[in-house]
Automatic annotation (TrEMBL):
Gene3D superfamilies: Phosphoglycerate mutase-like. CDD domains: HP_PGM_like. Pfam families: His_Phos_1. It comes from Durusdinium trenchii. It comes from the Eukaryota. This is Histidine phosphatase family protein.
Amino acid sequence: MDAVQGQTVRKTLFLIRHAESMENEKLGSLKKFFHSIGRLELPEWAHFYHGVSIVGEPSLVDSTLSTKGKKQVERLTEILREENFVDAHGVELVMHSPLIRAAETAKAVFHSMPKETADHFPRFVEPLIREKFISEWVNLGGLDKRIADFAASLVERSEERIVVVGHSQYFRRMLGQEKKMSNCDVWHVELEIDPASKEHRWVNLRKLHDVQVDDDQ
């Protein structure tokens, strides 16, 4: 529903956190190593060496998907196809962060549709929803402004039901959650925004799908 005579604008979003990236995988290996030490267990040094290799990761900021991440995308595609997700939920647009891991995960939505539909389905790359910048870890004001700007930008869009593929820290701050979404989780949330004051709130948050695959680590 577009803004009419000051009426509250409502949008339905289907949030998908990107699949596991190489950065996620290496940080996970370090976590396993130090978790073993904390439990006074003999750690696996392979986890340590794989983890610290993150220092030499050429795409640390814009990381590609890990092997597990690619499997997660395949599983997500199956789940969305089985549910006929796009039609069943009346999705009108797929929006994703410009980072590689989000763009690669967004392919699951398109691959879940018939090819003739996917070839022409609306797609939009949104810089406002990229992951938290280093500077925003110190000063959350910048991140909060991006989130507010993103909500306001949706007022200008005609689509009412949108898939948004993005990042855990961004979504966590946006929704006020204590925990991060897991990779490839699918959540439903509704946005209510006053077009005059630009005040917004996120309501009716619920998880729709939990994507799990075998852990190769």
